């Protein structure tokens, strides 16, 4: 096979995948606010079991935005999508989606949970008043990895927002949420 045919086949495959991601059934949308709430409750229980520091941090958080199942996939062209709920004092007060598109050297598919702990009133106000928040613009977001999770306490937590990625399944080159857009959903209760 000549170089041109190889590259041509790669572009066709990438285009087919990109087209398929936009026309194939999207990640299952929750049928109701109640369905999202059930998924969020289960996701938080899993996060607290996997990362006990998250449970401690939740006690000081003004609110927690939880996306129980973000689906990410791609081959050169990629995307991710998930739906979740904003919880204040254990109750859902709003519903949101997270979405992103990307281009570059990437391949695979992955599913993961994503939780944002809003530690300040100003960060929470920014989320609630912004028509679509792009993560990385606005309040500072600190990703919590395994090492940091072991040392973070409610007294050392000084940032606006702390983010946890948990329950990862599948393989995907790189996992970043920088540039992801979070948008409020209108849901029937």
How does this model look, in words?
This protein is an alpha+beta fold and 189 residues long. It has one domain. The protein has five helices and six strands. Strands 1, 2, 3, 4, 5 and 6 form a six-stranded mixed β-sheet that branches. Helix 2 crosses helix 3. The chain is globular, with a radius of gyration of 18 Å. The N terminus is likely disordered.
Average the pLDDT over all residues and give the rounded result.
76
Q: How many structural domains can be distinguished in the coordinates? A: 1
Which regions are unreliable across 5 or more consecutive residues at pLDDT < 50? 1-30, 147-151
Helix-strand category = alpha+beta
The percent range for helix content is 25-40%
Total of helices? 5
Cα shape: globular
Tag the structure with descriptive keywords.
189 residues; alpha+beta; six-stranded mixed beta sheet; 5 helices; globular; single chain; 32% helix
Summed up, what is this model?
With 189 residues, this protein is of the alpha+beta class. Helices cover 32% and strands 40% of the residues. Strands 1, 2, 3, 4, 5 and 6 form a six-stranded mixed β-sheet that branches.
Topology:
Blueprint: H1 3-23, H2 33-50, H3 52-58, E1 63-88, E2 91-118, H4 121-129, E3 133-134, E4 141-143, H5 146-151, E5 161-172, E6 181-185
Parallel strand pairs: 4-5
Antiparallel strand pairs: 1-2, 2-5, 2-6, 3-6
Helix pairs in contact: 2-3
